[in-house]
Amino acid sequence: MDLFRKKSVDQLVAESTPLKRTMRTFDLTMLGIGAIIGTGIFVLTGKGALTAGPALSVSFLLAAVCCGFAGLCYAEFASMAPVSGSAYSYSYLAFGELIAFIIGWDLILEYALQAATVSAGWSGYFNKLLEGFGLHLPVELTAAYGTTPGVTTYFNLPGFVIVLLITWVLSIGINQTKRTNDIMVMIKLVIIVLFIVCTVWYVNPANWKPFSPYGIYTFQPNSTQPYGIVPAASIVFFSFIGFDAVSSSAEETVNPNKTLPKGILLSLAISTVFYVIMTLIMTGVVPYQQFANFIDAPVAGVILATGMNWLAFIVNLGALIGMTTVMLVQLYGQSRICYAMSRDGLFPKFFGEVHSKYRTPFKGTWFFGLLTAVAGGFININILFELVNIGTLSAFIIVSAGILWMRHTQPDAHRGFRAPLVPFTPICAIVFCLVLIAGLNWETWVRFAIWFGIGLVVYFAYSRKRSKLNGGEAAAETAAQTATV
């Protein structure tokens, strides 16, 4: 059996099972912004400022450039093969089944772990919002077990409930999903603009000096954590994760050859502008050293420093909305990856069953939604967010390398969008990803290797012999015969 058996573009398109096509450029752009703008601004800017100082804006720009090069590669693949599955499907096309399975397995970790991690941050902002109305949840139900030092906690009830609500929205149809996301993203952007307009007058340029106190990359005495622009970029890269989920919507997109590339690149560009402006203002209002006092809620801390307490409630609401859209897009992308892998026989048929009424992978959506809700409710996963980064960077490297390979092996294949300056663009994407991976700690590598090993066991024990390309039992079924609930 060939571990690197491939699919052709025609085969990928022919096997796709059209879901309900309603997504247009605006919806895709909102989907991308919904995934990108959230945790990065409302949570990670605190740790990022302590790591890079005012140069955090450069760190965000570095992470954005990395994603930009990768985004161009994603856009070309999306225009070649407008099918569900994102990097998984693209790897099947370029490198074959084993690499595709590994990337799909990698993406499952990325989407689930990010959604669960964000649910913990969402819970914190939700509790603060309740406190503003004089309401208090039992402290035991406000965080996962052992998350809050000095406080006994057992279960993150708000995080658990919000993941279930998002799963319900995703399961009942793409129209409901896109409308919910579009509305929340627009509200979030309005709140962010309000924050910028209100706080820019409090910027003190003296707080930007020295602009880069730790340089590009350095270690401080008595610290194992690297400091500087590159380590901070490795941290805030988490902020940009999710734009790749836009390409997972190919089978629900109108005219995907053109709209997918536009949605991917527009969402990246708009989000980057907001991140750079926000970080410059935040480090201009408050000296970067003081972010240690409000590392978990940096935006709220900046507002309190200005004395505009009335703005705190509005921004807390914006944080809730921002993180909700992040979770929505991550859970959406995860369900579509599993749907594509099930259709290829690499996952059980259960994950590929499409609901006859809602035209969504109903059971698979609820399966992973429940798992993510439980993970966010019970497990202290804050230390694992770097796993999401290394997993995503690995996927970006594979997709970028795939563009190099496809340009060499299939130069005449139809491409609705062509990444510019190839091979320069994909090579830059690979180099930037490797630089950011180098900024992660060794524990992250160990955890990633363990997850990688589990994936290989699953592939050789189950997926390899059941693959449709293997001619096994799954081969008799075609995408057009996908079971309905």
From TrEMBL:
Q: Sorted alphabetically, which Gene3D superfamilies does this protein's record hold?
A: Amino acid/polyamine transporter I
Sorted alphabetically, the keyword list is:
Membrane, Transmembrane, Transmembrane helix, Transport
Q: How does it sit in the membrane?
A: Multi-pass membrane protein
Location(s) in or outside the cell: Membrane
Annotated membrane-spanning segments are: 28-50, 56-75, 87-108, 154-173, 185-204, 224-243, 264-288, 308-333, 365-384, 390-407, 419-439, 445-462
Task: Quote the protein name from its UniProt record.
Answer: Amino acid permease
Which residues does UniProt call coiled coil?
none
Pfam families, per the entry: AA_permease_2
Q: Which GO terms describe its molecular function?
A: amino acid transmembrane transporter activity
- Cellular component annotations (GO), alphabetically ordered: membrane
Q: Do you know which InterPro entries this protein is assigned to?
A: AA/rel_permease1
Superkingdom, according to UniProt? Bacteria
